[in-house]
Amino acid sequence: MAELNVTKKSISSLFSEMQGTKFIIPDYQRPYKWDLEKCEILWQDLTSFFEESTGNEEYYLGTVVTCKNDESGKTEIEVIDGQQRITSLLLLLRAFYSKLENSAIEDDNITGLKNQIAPCIWDVNPISGRVSNTSLIHIESRVATESDKEIFHTILQSGKSKPNATDLYSKNYHYFFSMCEEYAKNNPMSWQGFCVCILKNCIILPIDCEKLDTALTIFSTLNDRGMPLSDSDIFKAQIYRTKNTEEEKSEFTNSWRELTETVDDAGMTLDALFRNYSHVIRGRNGDRTKEIALRKFYAGEKFEKLKQPNLMKELQELAEFWLTVKQQGESKFQGREFISHQSFKYFHCLNHYPNEYWKYVTSAYFFKNKDSDSFHTNFSEYLGTLVSFLFFEFVQKPTVNAIKDSCYQFCIDIFEGKPLTITASISSGFSITLAQTVNYKIARAMILLHAYLNPNQIELIESNFEIEHIFPRVWQAANYNGWNHEDAKVYLERYGNKVAIGKKLNIQAGNGYFGQKKNKYKDSPIANVNDLSKYPSDDWVKTDIEAREKLFLESIVGFFHSNLHKK
Fold first, then answer.
1. Fewer CB within 10 Å, N or C, the chain?
2. Closest Cα partner for 470 from 546, 395, 556, 525?
3. Residues 365 and 485 in one domain
4. Of 384, 419, 454, which marks where a domain is finished?
5. Structure pTM?
6. Is 441 inside any structural domain?
7. Which of 307, 230, 240, 237 is nearest to 268 (CA)?
8. What's the total number of domains in the chain?
9. What is the per-residue pLDDT across 249-276, written as a single tens digit (0 to 9) for each?
10. How many CA atoms lie within 13 A of 544 on its CB side?
11. Residue ranges making up the domain that contains 403
12. What is the Rg, in whole angstroms, of the alpha carbon atoms belonging to the chain?
């Protein structure tokens, strides 16, 4: 027997054939997301097609992937892909029906159109063809909140919603209804034909699957009208499949919503969370092989990694950890002072590192050591070494491939209980190489690290700090003794001429002369900037930049020496 059935159906056929059953939007699906812009595009596409059509053409509206679900004792059609489209089309049909209901005169045409639209929305009496119970609608959303679900179902049942409602169901329904009224007013001789065109000439390609596995495979390769499916959408569906009872399914749905909220608050994506967690799994399994695509990683052994009983618990813990990192201690992890002030300084620097492999190592360290009483102290030391290694390696070879294998090994070492001991040879010429990275992606992170290495820098620096050019990029030779344009090109972008500064103060300092800037610098909470306000000269010349750069490089190299063992 075939695993899937692909047919071509008109809007009328697709929905009116749902007598005695309904489309189900499962819990694991994403909420309804179509905004007014997408509804406007749909309306414009439909009207353009109708007005340009000669009567025989068909307008293709996309695919819908479904799977029968008989577990509840009654046949339900689960929508695996296309729920955004189906939901919007039903709102459109209900708007047309409401327009017909409100007609001043109900002639045969009005009655005929209502009789064509009604079976698309509701079950109808098989003999009379009339709607006897408007609650028997052809769709049920189990992903929406209870309030949104009630709003959606009420709109389809009664054609009514609050005029000032802000939910997407109401806003889109109001839009479609207003456009129906406007079109009927402006095109009184053709708007009924427009209704028929939508019902008969607008085509959906339903892909009906007998097995959920088949549906999910197709689901993973399709886009829902401009809304790409993410890896985490697939993972959510697979985890949902492992839940056998309604209680388990409900518990998972609630857990997933909580996880989504935590991830959003942490400034992450669910895909990023699963990527971090994949390196936890790799570390536990001693896997240092080449990384593979995220979906392929979790799909291995029939998605066995997603069937582990502690999966959701660990994902939630990992999300809460990264939320604690983002909030810089404003929230405590499981009621504990979990991350030291020094660790937050390192995190700030790492957030500006050119790739995210440091996060994978950090996630592994968290899981291995989160229950340790000494986590607070040991974690800070670990991060200091990790920062030194990553920054040092990027100076040597500014590519992600230079640190990948090491990060894989770090994750394994963490779960084997080995300390992060790194040997490195810092040559006498390293400072020259370091100075040249001022034009690399690492420069912003390096300048921030230098700011935190100032022993007087107690507080965290604002997250949206900027880079101040002490000798400004815009200057006038008449006001800057000892400078010419050739020298400026050479010295302007050197580390010795750059300092991390608050956004507001950077605007205030502007392109002023150094002697003027000093008065602004003294108000800065950043120690490096404040130190400049105490500079003995009101001029800032080439020798000053050279001297400050020498101190900058010595500070960074000294930090590396303190954390990396000599070869």
1. N
2. 546
3. no
4. 419
5. 0.72
6. yes
7. 230
8. 3
9. 889 989 999 999 999 999 999 999 999 9
10. 16
11. 233-419
12. 31
